[in-house]
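Subject: sequence -> structure tokens, single chain

Hey, anyone have a minute? Need the predicted structure for the following. Not urgent.
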Amino acid sequence: MQELKTKATTLIIGIGNIGRNDDGLGWDFVEKIEEMQLPHIACEYRYQLQIEDAQLVSQYETVFFADASHQALDNGFEIKECSLVDHYYFTSHSQSPETILYLAKELYQKEPIAYTIAIAGNDWDFENKLSEIAKENLDKALQGFEKWVNCSTENNKSAILL
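Reply:
Had a minute. Here:
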């Protein structure tokens, strides 16, 4: 297997479906990060995670999985550490971030530091637009992520995790 040649050390995977209004929050988050043109960050879009994504995440030191949340979140978003778990679904589709991390370790002997970014939404109809609440929560999530990126120490980064 050939290793990816990339300058980026961090990967952000936006998960969702932009055709379902707020379900596209993960993609919108990644789009905004791409606009920042941060040289150490690579971005990918997924409708859902698949087992093949284990190879992709194994190429990075740090991985963020950004997705919409059906739950109301205190700050409109949350960033949490993501640990690997050895469960998987009997289909090659719709795997959890934890499963992708487990597969990266088992198949490629790589264990990137990983986080999930949940952004609260409330409109899941079949259109391609964000609700006003989702737009506010997206802005909050971007601000939280920027604080995390700009922190110089791991202790400070841990304090930002919500």
